[in-house]
Amino acid sequence: MLSFYELTDTECLDFEGAMEIYIEAFPAHERPSIAIIKDRINSGAERLIIGKQDDKVGLMALLWKLASTRFILLDFLATAAPFRGTGIGGNFMEFIMNWTTSQNENLLFEVEHPDFGENTEQRLKRIRFYEKYGANTIKDVIYYLPDLEGGEPKEMLIMTIPAIDLDLKELKQVVKAIYQQLYSLGEGDEPFRKFILSLELGF
Question: At residue 24, does pLDDT exceed 80?
Answer without folding.
Answer: yes
